[in-house]
Amino acid sequence: MGLLQRPLCCHTQQPQSHHHLHSESSTSSSLSSQPSLPSVPSLTPQKPHFLEEQPQTTHHRLITAVKGHTSPIFSLALHGKSLYSASSGGEIRACNRNPTSANDIITLKYISNVNTNTVVATSNAPIKSLIVSHDKLFTAHQDHKIRVWKTTTDQPGNNNNNNPNYYKCVATLPTLHDRISKLFSSKNYVEIRRHKKRTWVHHVDTVSALALSRDGSLLYSASWDRTFKIWRTSDFKCLESVKNAHEDAINSLVLSNNGFVYTGSADTRIKMWKKLEGEKKHSLIGTLEKHKSAVNALALNSDGSVLYSGACDRSILVWESDQNENNNTMVLVGALRGHTKAILCLVVVADLVCSGSADNSVRVWRRGAEKSYSCLAVFEGHRRPVKCLAMAVDSNSGGPREDDHNSSSYLVYSAGLDCEIKVWQIRVPSLSL
């Protein structure tokens, strides 16, 4: 018997047969009948048709659907003028972040002639997470690896500077040097299964999430193997591995600018970690326990004072820094409810929170006065669960009402198991003073 467990599904504490989709495949009708944390107060109005009561204040529309992927899309990232997407087929694509047609897309495929003596890098290694930083891409894979991609001048047929750059794989983590340096000391080995050990620099299950430190010097990775690791981006050396960080798979990881690391797990818990002054390793600061099923998504506001968590219990929980505890703890404020199935992804920009769900919809929430929230819009159009989101201020368009100067326009990008990227525009009125 192995020591590692597969991630839990969204329904109950049962094993999931299709582990590469785990909590994303919420097909059981039992989700709709699950209690949605009735003990947690709701932060949204309880009016039966409140969305329809304010048609004059918020406007949204679908701009386009970008096609090209032939397998589920698990990650989206904005960088410069481009939107990057990564799929379970091991394919990275890039398109203009303000596309005007579904044909405005370029495929960035694995480069077959890269030296792969120390790695297994094939196009059938599903990608679970993608980060773009300057001239590099970082991708997390189901084959337990992290790959680093760098822009290349070898761009056949691409002489248009408006097109996204092409990339080649320049490193696979853990690197060969890291692996060799750990081989000869028994203290570098950890047990992964009965009678089987690996060095601590290895992830031994799907790498589910990535995050970069604010200065870009450190890469954080989380895995279904219940660990998270920290890598130095200058030489890709693994600096630390926090083993047994959770009792089950880690599905999400986010960083705050003040040094906190938050991990969300299939064990229903969210944990707070930080490297304390004078310490060499991260310590557990606190555990947030209120969800009743697998935590799939985490997101922080810009100053790190508000944490949002989404789980298979269909609720988005809102946690805020406890000012009486020097911001070292987070307290539960309430829940955002409306989705009818599992929450799979979250993104925050300004005072807006977007959530994607296994109910095939995207909801846009807005934080108002006195910690209240309102649901501004529901985007419907995906045919299958929404697995990833990106969001940005729409700086290139006047929006649906150019005569309204007291509003802001945003672009929301959503994608998931239907293999399509949808681009939405929403115009949000300014809050009344």
Automatic annotation (TrEMBL):
Residues 12-48 are annotated as: Disordered. Gene3D superfamilies: YVTN repeat-like/Quinoprotein amine dehydrogenase. Signal peptide: none annotated. It comes from the Eukaryota. InterPro entries: JINGUBANG-like, WD40/YVTN_repeat-like_dom_sf, WD40_repeat_dom_sf, WD40_rpt. Keywords: WD repeat. Pfam families: WD40. WD repeats lie at residues 200-241, 243-283, 288-329, 336-365. Residues 24-46 have a biased composition (Low complexity). PANTHER family: F-BOX AND WD40 DOMAIN PROTEIN (PTHR22844), F3I6.5 PROTEIN (PTHR22844:SF387). This is Protein JINGUBANG. It comes from Glycine soja (Wild soybean).
